Amino acid sequence: MINVDPQVLWVANSACNAAGVLLAATAVAAIFHRKFSKLFWAVPAVLLSAWLETKLSPQFATSFSSDINAYRHMALDVLAFSSIALVFVWLRLKTARRAGPARQSHSQQSKNVGATNMNAIADSEWRNAIGRFLASADLADTGALVEIYDQHFSCVRIADDGGFVRLSREQMLTFLKQAVKDAVARPTGSGHAAVQTRETVIHHAELVGDTGFMLMTRGKDLGNGWEPMFYNLVWKKQNGQWQLLREFVHQKSTPQWN
Fold first, then answer.
1. Which own/partner contact pairs does 203-208 have at CB distance under 8 Å and 24+ positions apart?
2. What is the CATH number for 178?
3. What is residue 116's three-state secondary structure?
4. Residue 210, in any domain of the structure
5. pLDDT tens across 174-216, in order?
């Protein structure tokens, strides 16, 4: 007979349970990610944790020998470790897959924010708002643009051939949503890029109170080849947030909004 302090047994037993679950999660993740070499040490470590947990359980701690009940207890430990680990790894992979598009979108935005002469915008909050707008516009991210466009936003566009259109906030968002659907549906498309953008140059930025005026050019391909597009943007700061109030655009080809 061996007498062991029950509290010591409980602490050691809990440590073995925790180690067993973590090691089982490592083994399960190795299978999911096809890193089978980890199984050579992870699986024996899980079995060792189950054996130690069994030996440190109150009903088996008084003897070094093992019987059928001890082996049954050990098998249940392995099953419990594996089940908990499988659920944990599955939830983690599911969360990672959901976060993947968001991270990709954020990465794409970071690439598209770049514009020549951004330092011309002295106010850092306004500069950040413009950066978010440029990235969101390039991605046709209507979810972000809803927050950027003022409630009274409108877009006025004219073309060299006399084309003219005035769009409300709702019309602009609807057009962008449709543009994304069309881009995704193209047989040769890459899945997005409703409008290709090549270069953005900030020519002038000026603040008058809570109103900002900005002139910029952007190189875009609207389906007729690359062309320069000239923007005059009017921003308004309301409740501490910069929002785009007006967008005036001069472009080469007639806008097609249907």
1. 203/117, 203/120, 204/120, 205/120, 205/121, 205/122, 205/126, 207/122, 207/123, 207/126
2. 3.10.450.50
3. strand
4. yes
5. 988 887 777 666 655 444 455 678 788 999 999 999 999 999 9
Q: Where are the beta strands (DSSP E) in 49-106?
A: none
Indicate the helix (H) or strand (E) that contains 245: strand 241-251
- List, for residues 119-164, the tens digit of each pLDDT value: 888 899 999 999 999 988 888 889 999 999 999 999 999 988 888 8
Q: Are 45 and 23 a contacting pair, CB within 8 Å?
A: yes
- Helices 6-32/68-112 angle, 10° precision: 50
Contact at 8 Å (CB) between 163 and 148?
no
Residue count of the chain? 258
Rounded Cα distance between 206 and 244, Å, is 14
Q: Give the span between the Cα atoms of 4 and 7, in whole angstroms.
A: 9
Domain carrying residue 172: 113-251
CA distances from 88 to 77, 226, 252 (A): 16, 50, 56
Task: Answer yes or no: do 26 and 59 share one domain.
Answer: yes
Assess whether pLDDT exceeds 80 at residue 246: yes
Structure tokens at 181: 């659907």
pTM over 0.70: no
pLDDT higher than 50, residue 105: no
3 pLDDT band, cuts 50/70/90, is low
